[in-house]
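Fresh eyes needed here. Kindly weigh in on this sequence plus structure tokens:
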Amino acid sequence: QVQLTESGGGLVQAGGSLRLSCAVSGSGSAYGVYTVGWFRQASGKELEFIARISRKGVTEYSTGSLRGRFTISRDSAKNMIYLQMNNLKPEDTALYYCAGDEIGGTSDDQWTFWGQGTRVTVSS
């Protein structure tokens, strides 16, 4: 069984930074979890793709306003994936999830494994 556990959320002022972490445990590679992605869901809104990173470190980012402020990275030796978020804005307030799959994609239905989420609140 694959488990993904997010951490690092919290309350931050606008303009501040946070680094989210996603720990992948279990037999990730045995279940074909080679790519990990980040999504977020604001209250009353749909899940929004942020970024994904392959086992080899190839990245894809959302084409929206997140690009340039958020950076995804991974430490494969530690089975950790990170999302560095800079210049945070109140509209970044959401529940942030990491997801795992062989390839994944920009749609949430392309991912098999999900974490429970970590909440990020950005105050103005």
Notes: The chain has a mean pLDDT of 93. The radius of gyration is 13 Å. The longest strand covers residues 18-26. The CA atoms of residues 55 and 99 lie 13 Å apart.
